[in-house]
């Protein structure tokens, strides 16, 4: 009973105390303090060095945190509507193997999945803020790491240490947790079975298979017809609005004709009252960007076509682009260097062109950089 009580206290303290408080927690004893030290070499202790400061009022902030294996992972805190609380955009993987062509993370490939503890530790790094929403829209495809994501949101089955949604922990209502997917349709069922109240956001980004396959390699494996089925299942299972995300790329997918095509695709998915469309004007990538952002007029014209189809539509104007913290901008140079180092190491051991466990091809020494950008998962 004493042990249980102590464990409960520790859990609560670990979940709700800020990092400076943890560091000053002498009464927990040296051993316990060591366990709570974010610089300890534990995979749970995600983060090293100085704890990041909370963002200044009203500012979007990007955090780069070190995992146990030395990799870096990123998370973004944004002011929630109303200005009194925050939305956290958390990552589920270090990198991503989906290879979406407009996404900085997608250009890196996948280093590894985050564990449930690491995902929670990411969110715990900005404790002291009032977190109103947790959005799995950072680095990685959450449903490509579905078990850890489910466990991080609400550890099931018992011992039921409900972490992100636990009233004694971060206490974020499960209906304020959104999981975004690029199209892992089969895992939508897994997620909804474990967490029927969670919100889902489907990243469409194109209204037809030909264009979507060009922008998002996953579409070759999970075409729009399968995605529509998963969306219908989600609407029926949750009886709530499903979010649709659509990045607007100038001259590629932002013509009013694309909007009309999108509206007719969505009409076949479900009633307009069950759909919420977020339009995301493109945010520039590092290096030479492949795309450019549409004008404000083009965004408004696109929106008008969808509104005419009675859809609920919002344009999500960019936040945090100056810090490379906006949608599609996560992933930094250190990570890309680490990825390239590992691939070259793998090429030495396995031979050029061999594919590793994540499906990525080992690069050649001379053309490695270009290969690392282009070569993602084989569908
Ligand atoms: S948009 Fe999402 S799924 Fe696509 S590459 Fe980027 S992180 Fe991965």
How would you explain this protein's 3D organization?
The structure is a single chain. With 379 residues, this protein is α/β, with parallel strands linked by helices. Among the domains are: 38-236, Aldolase class I (TIM Barrel), CATH 3.20.20; 336-374, no CATH class. It is built from twelve helices and eleven strands. It has helices spanning 2-16, 19-23, 30-36, 116-124, 146-153, 185-194, 209-215, 224-238, 256-269, 296-308, 333-350, 368-374, and strands at residues 61-66, 72-79, 86-90, 93-96, 109-113, 131-136, 177-181, 199-203, 242-248, 275-281, 312-315. The strands form two sheets. It has a nine-stranded mixed sheet. Strands 4-5 form a two-stranded antiparallel sheet. Helix 4 (116-124) crosses helix 5, helix 8 packs across helix 9 and helix 9 packs parallel to helix 10 (296-308). It is globular. Residues 15-20, 25-51, 157-161 and 357-379 have low confidence and may be disordered. Bound molecules: iron/sulfur cluster. Residues 96, 98-100, 103, 105-106, 139-141, 182 line the site of iron/sulfur cluster. Keywords: 4Fe-4S, Cytoplasm, Iron, Iron-sulfur, Metal-binding, Methyltransferase, S-adenosyl-L-methionine, Transferase. It is found in: Cytoplasm. It holds the Pfam family Radical_SAM. This is Radical SAM core domain-containing protein. Its cofactor is [4Fe-4S] cluster.
């Amino acid at each position: 009973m004493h042990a249980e009580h102590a464990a409960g206290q520790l859990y609560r303290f670990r979940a709700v105390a800020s990092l400076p408080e943890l560091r000053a927690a002498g009464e927990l004893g040296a051993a316990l303090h060591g366990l709570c030290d974010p610089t300890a070499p534990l995979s749970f202790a995600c983060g090293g060095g100085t704890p990041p400061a909370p963002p200044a009022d009203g500012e979007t902030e990007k955090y780069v945190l070190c995992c146990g294996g030395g990799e870096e992972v990123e998370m973004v805190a944004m002011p929630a509507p109303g200005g009194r609380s925050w939305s956290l955009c958390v990552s589920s993987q270090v990198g991503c193997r989906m290879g979406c062509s407009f996404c900085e993370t997608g250009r890196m490939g996948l280093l590894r999945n985050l564990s449930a503890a690491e995902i929670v530790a990411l969110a715990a790094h900005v404790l002291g803020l009032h977190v109103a929403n947790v959005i799995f829209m950072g680095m990685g495809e959450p449903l490509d790491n579905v078990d850890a994501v489910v466990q991080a949101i609400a550890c099931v089955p018992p011992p039921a240490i409900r972490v992100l949604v636990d009233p004694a922990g971060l206490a974020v209502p499960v209906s304020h947790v959104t999981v975004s997917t690029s199209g892992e349709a089969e895992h939508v069922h897994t997620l909804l079975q474990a967490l029927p109240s969670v919100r889902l956001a489907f990243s469409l980004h194109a209204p037809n298979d030909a264009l979507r396959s060009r922008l998002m390699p996953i579409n070759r494996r999970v075409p729009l017809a399968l995605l529509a089925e998963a969306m219908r299942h989600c609407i029926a299972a949750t009886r709530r609005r499903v979010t649709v995300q659509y990045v607007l790329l100038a001259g590629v997918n932002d013509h009013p004709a694309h909007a009309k095509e999108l509206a007719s695709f969505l009409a076949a998915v479900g009633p307009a009252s069950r759909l919420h469309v977020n339009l995301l004007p493109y945010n520039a990538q590092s290096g030479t960007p492949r795309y450019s952002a549409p004008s404000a007029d083009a965004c408004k014209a696109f929106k008008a076509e969808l509104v005419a189809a009675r859809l609920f539509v919002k344009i999500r104007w960019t936040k945090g682009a100056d810090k490379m913290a906006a949608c599609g901008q996560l992933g930094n140079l250190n990570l890309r260097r680490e990825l390239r180092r590992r691939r070259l190491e793998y090429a030495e051991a396995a031979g050029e062109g061999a594919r590793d466990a994540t499906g990525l091809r080992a690069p050649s020494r001379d053309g490695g950089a270009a290969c690392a950008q282009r070569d993602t998962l084989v569908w």
